[in-house]
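Worked problem 6 (solution included).
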Amino acid sequence: MNNIKKNLYYALKPFIPRWLQIVVRRRLVASQRLTCTDIWPIDEKAGKPPDGWSGWPDNKRFALVLTHDVETAAGQDKCRELMEIEIDAGFRSSFNFVPERYEVSSALRRYIVSSGFEVGVHDLNHDGKLYRSEKVFTERAARINHYLKEWNSKGFRSGSMDRNLEWLHELDIEYDSSTFDTDPFEPWFEGVGTIFPFIVMNDRCGRYVELPYTIPQDFTVFVLMGEKNIDIWKKKLDWIAENGGMALLTTHPDYMNLNGKQGLEEYPVEYYREFLDYIDSEYNGRYWHVLPSEMSRFWSDTLCRV
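Solution. The predicted structure is:
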């Protein structure tokens, strides 16, 4: 999506009813899906390891990183229960909050960190305007850096996976996660073509680690495509494990139905629980499970040794 189309889309979006947005996107995705079977959910070219790669710690077969983008106050209200699901299953994750879209609970942030999880910054307003111009980005970057410092966060993710990897050097981050290996259904549909992290440097020797998500997003699979099982998630995970990459999943508490009547853009949380069970049952002891900040530090240190 070029900048003109993107700016027009976000300008019109507030005036389009949410139900109509979902209907239109479902039809568009159904059409797109027929033409991209060669690159989604698996792009074979993305399985190539980086030069000098010697493998994950303790000879683990693949790496696992779990993240959540919390896009609304309603999603924030589900975070504690989602954490309990992960704790019970023996996993931990990061929760990325939108600082100026809703009031982010400081008590929740403290609880997340004290429980061994991680907090990240997810855009600033999530309004599609972060990258409208370099001037706008610079102005917002100052606010984002304020929240990064206040929350003691090491990582960032843009809304809707919009990004300018060069501009992101203005943020005080160790890692960014605004990319994907392959996802033709995102507004910014160009993938980075790898299931491994990579370093982004600039000409002033600035650097951060980029962590692309490599498991398809829950919203795409269950809300837009209407899938009623986790076969796509399992297929992609198996392929990543076979190729020794990083399985990074991005989900949204906002779209998980934890109890009660399922809404238009919700799916049963049991799908996520089932995926965690699948990981542990199929690959117990064979994956390296870490938080995004731990992955970024490992990758940065590994690069220095190569």
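Discussion: The longest helix spans residues 134-151.
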